[in-house]
Amino acid sequence: MSATYYPKVLAICCRWCSYAGADLAGAMRLQYPPAIRILMVPCTGRVDLLYLLQAFEVGADAVFVSGCHEGDCHYLTGNLQVRKRVERVKKILQEVGLEPERLEMFHISASEGPKFAAVAQEMTARALRLGPNPVKRQMRAAWLAEQAAAHAAA
Ligand code: FES
Q: What is the pLDDT of residue 4?
């Protein structure tokens, strides 16, 4: 556990499936990290490539998009379209020096509260492992120094 860093993980959830899945996780009293900030959208197909990039620009340490399962999108192909955008943004992240695994796409239905909690834990664990988003320069420098000190002490 870092003294200087606790991640911010943005979860962009479709209102019909994944947002309800997150709600179910809460109703089932399943634990998931407080790092998660949920943004509900009518359909993940509404999520533009620029929104994903802007999330990192303003300091998100990890982002995941969670939509309906294939064939279940209420707007037919929104979830398939955003999956392609997520793949494009992962390539852009890599080109600008950010780890592409900071971004991921999932499909979580309204009845999959435990899956939502597991995904939330997985993305928080990734963000903790990767450290602060480099746009947060001071926090990143402090975290790197902390990591180096811990490595030297080991
Ligand atoms: Fe859920 Fe399109 S309505 S992803």
A: 82
Beta-sheet strands, E only, within 5-153: 9-14, 36-41, 62-67, 103-107
Q: What is the pLDDT of residue 1?
A: 65
The answer, yes or no, to whether any atom of ligand 1 lies below 6 A from the CB of 67, is yes
Torsion region of 66: left, alpha or beta (phi above 0 gives left; psi -120 to 50 gives alpha) = beta
Report field, pTM of the whole predicted structure over 0.85:
yes
The answer to whether the Cα torsion of 39, 23, 14, 42 is positive or negative is negative
- Residue 154's pLDDT is 81
Rg, Å, the chain Cα set: 16
Under a CB-based contact definition with an 8 Å cutoff, are residues 42 and 23 in contact? no
Residue 74: CB within 6 Å of ligand 1?
yes
pLDDT < 50 stretches in the chain: none
- Looking at residue 2, what is its pLDDT? 78
9-153, CATH topology level:
Rossmann fold (3.40.50)
Of 46, 75, 112, the residue with max ligand 1 atoms within 8 A of its CB, to mutate for a pocket test, comes to: 75
Residues in the chain: 154
With the most atoms of ligand 1 within 8 angstroms of its CB, the residue from 12, 13, 14, 80 to mutate is: 14
